Amino acid sequence: DAAIQKPELIGQLFLVDAEVSAEKPMQIKVFTEEMKLWSFDKDLRLEIYKRFPVGSKMSFVGELDFHDGRWQFVVHDLSWLEP
How far is 44 from 22, CA to CA, in rounded Å? Predict the structure, then answer.
């Protein structure tokens, strides 16, 4: 949530429990905060969309990042997603 949205935490890994609130771009709701979820790997992004439709709950390891004025988590590998 907002407590982790600090520049000094960019690049840190977090275990995140969230609800998917939108796709393309994928957005998640963490507590009361809307954040983007991103992967640089197009195939991994497609797999995330397939596994987690809007409204579903998900758990993942994400790297905290800030892009285009918004906070986001970046997933770098399929193994970072909870089955």
Answer: 17
Type of residue numbered 64: L
Residue 65: φ, ψ to 5°: -150, 165
- Low pLDDT (below 50) residues in the chain: none
Structure tokens at 8: 């000094």
DSSP letters, 70-81, are EEEEE---GGGB
Q: pTM for the complete prediction?
A: 0.91
What's the count of helices (H) and strands (E) in the chain, helices before strands?
1, 5
Place of tokens 């979820």: 37
